[in-house]
Amino acid sequence: MKINKKFKTSLRIPLQAVGLMWLVMLNSWIMDINLVSAGLYPRSLNGLIGIITAPFIHSSLEHLSSNSFPLIFLGTMSFYFYPRISKRVILILVFLVGILVWLFARPSYHIGASGIVYGLASFIFFSGVFRKDIRSYALSFIILFLYGGIVEGLMPNQFGVSWESHLAGAVSGIVLAFIYRNTDRPKPEVELYTAEEDNEFEYKYIPEDEEK
Fold first, then answer.
1. Following DSSP, what letter does each residue of the chain receive, concatenated?
2. Which residue in 47, 104, 132, 184 is a FRET match for 30, CA 20 to 30 A apart?
3. Tens digit of pLDDT for each residue in 87-112?
4. pTM (2 decimals)?
């Protein structure tokens, strides 16, 4: 079916991204390598590489697990409902979150994909706020219902939590939702009718044996 094909297509990239994160974690265990130093370190030239690498590095199995399902779920929602802009939005989120953290965060290694999770949740929620169509409103409600509690992650001075990444993701999501508010809108419903419906006709039944 067409819907199933679209869903599978929307699921593919989020699954691949999360699979790569698990592969990185598995290799670090097998090779006994601590990858934290490959994360993002603010205002350090060496730390710039972390803009790209940090989302794929996690400190523990619990850390990675907590990001995996939200990334798959939110990523699939994004690709399914906003297919034209999803790749662009996610790429911009990765770089924008990384740059903001590099510029403004505490001098510590920042790792994990939670900034992207916050960015996607923010993007989908505020797309409903800015677009004001029924579909986007419904998606906003779903995000609010499922992830309303993530606001707590924006609070500063949380031990072992990069709240700066969360905040950068949330802000980036709002900005991108506003920029792309007029893209990937649902097609308006068109009521089809024939020209005859605008006129009144009188129909008369003629038996077959009288036709001639």
1. -HHHHHHHHHHHHHHHHHHHHHHHHHHHHHTT---GGGSB-TT-TGGGGHHHHGGG--SSHHHHHHHHHHHHHHHHHHHHH-TTTHHHHHHHHHHHHHHHHHHHS-SS-B-SSHHHHHHHHHHHHHHHHHH--HHHHHHHHHHHHHHGGGGGGGSS--TT--HHHHHHHHHHHHHHHHHTTTSSPPPPP-----GGGGS--------GGG--
2. 47
3. 999 999 999 999 999 999 999 999 99
4. 0.85
Q: According to the model, what pLDDT value does residue 157 have?
A: 73
Q: How does pLDDT run across 26-53, given as a tens digit for each residue?
A: 999 999 999 999 999 999 999 999 999 9
| Closest by CA position to 48, among listed 95, 116, 114, 8 | 95
- Tokens 């409902």 -> residue: 81
